[in-house]
Amino acid sequence: MADLLLDIANFWISESLVTTVGTDIFLDILPDSPDNCVAIVEYAGETSFINNALNRSIQVRVRNTVHNTAKSKIIALYGSVYNPEAEIRIVDFTATRWGIVTPRFQLDKDENKRFIFVFNMGIVTIGDS
Known about the structure:
The protein is of the alpha+beta class and about 130 residues long. It is about 20% helix and about 35% strand.
């Protein structure tokens, strides 16, 4: 399951939106530190197999101590995967197609006064990628 999350992280690294897994982008966890980071988390959501294709649900979380910085980061990440013309973007790694499930929004401000923005994606993968 982590292969898909790593592929997404590597895509954003190649787009210069984040730098390194474990430094400013994390897989399956939003750690207590650093304050400013991105997390890609797979959740139960809608999952079903159709002809060896698996629909998977992913949440992207951005946390930052500065509201506008967190908002700008979620907008950039969202924009890199959202295609308003087709609502599905074909990519050349594990995911065969994906669509945005929810628009980006501010989820919370945590106990350390860090802003958290999120959006959710539905991603179709082939096999057990």
